[in-house]
C-alpha cells in the first residue's frame, strides 16, 4: 500500500506546515515562546492533522493556517489543498508559448501563458491526490468552465456575454 509522504509548504509556511501525497495538511510539532500573567515559558505544540473545509460557495477544499514568525505579527491565510499538493508533488507548472496575430496583419507576436491553475482530472474537488491533479492555464480553465456550463461564452473584444437570437446574431 502507498505510504504517506509529507513535504514542507513553500516559503515561511514550510517552517510550520506540511502537505501529504494523500491530500492532507498538518502542523509540525514545535516549541513556542508564550506568556501568561505569571511569567514567560516555552510551550510544546504537538503535531496536528488539520481539519479541511469548504465555504459552501466554492467547491474546493481548504485549510486555515496561522502562525507568528520570529516573534512578529500573527499571520493568517487560507490554503487551497489542491494547489499546495500540486506545488509540492507535481513538476513545476509549464509556460506555454503561443503565436498571436497582431490585428489583421501578417505579423505575429509570441505570448506566454503560464499554467497557474490546478485542475482535478476526475472533477471531484475533495480528491486531492497528486495523480488526480494537473496544471492548466487560464484559457484552458475558461474553456472547461464553458463546457460545464459554469460560464457564458464571452465576446473576446467587448468582454460581454454572447446571447443568441433566433437568427443566431450577436446582441451586445
Main attributes of the structure:
four-stranded antiparallel β-sheet, 37% strand, elongated, 172 residues, 2 helices
Q: How would you describe the overall organization of this protein?
A:
With 172 residues, this protein is mainly beta. The chain folds into two domains: 78 residues, no CATH class; 77 residues, no CATH class. 11% of the residues lie in helices and 37% in strands. It contains two helices and 14 strands; from the N terminus they run ββββββββαββββαββ. The strands form six sheets. A four-stranded antiparallel β-sheet has the order 1-2-3-6, covered by helices on one side. It has a two-stranded antiparallel ribbon with strand order 4-5. β9 and β10 form a beta hairpin. It is elongated and about 75 Å long. The N and C termini lie far apart (57 Å). The C terminus is likely disordered.
Amino acid at each position: 500500500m502507498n505510504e504517506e509522504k509529507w513535504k514542507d509548504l513553500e516559503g515561511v509556511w514550510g517552517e510550520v506546515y506540511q502537505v501529504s501525497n494523500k491530500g492532507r495538511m498538518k502542523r509540525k510539532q514545535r516549541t513556542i515562546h508564550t506568556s501568561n500573567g505569571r511569567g514567560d515559558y516555552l510551550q510544546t505544540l504537538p503535531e496536528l492533522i488539520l481539519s479541511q473545509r469548504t465555504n459552501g460557495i466554492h467547491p474546493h477544499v481548504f485549510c486555515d493556517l496561522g502562525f507568528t514568525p520570529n516573534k512578529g505579527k500573527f499571520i493568517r491565510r487560507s490554503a487551497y489543498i489542491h494547489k499546495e499538493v500540486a506545488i509540492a508533488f507535481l513538476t513545476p507548472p509549464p509556460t506555454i508559448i503561443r503565436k498571436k496575430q497582431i490585428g489583421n496583419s501578417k505579423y505575429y507576436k509570441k505570448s506566454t501563458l503560464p499554467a497557474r491553475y490546478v485542475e482535478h482530472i476526475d472533477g471531484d474537488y475533495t480528491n486531492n491526490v497528486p495523480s488526480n491533479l494537473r496544471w492548466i492555464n487560464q484559457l484552458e480553465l475558461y474553456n472547461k468552465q464553458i463546457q460545464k456550463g459554469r460560464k457564458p461564452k464571452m465576446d473576446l473584444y467587448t468582454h460581454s456575454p454572447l446571447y443568441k437570437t433566433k437568427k443566431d446574431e450577436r446582441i451586445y
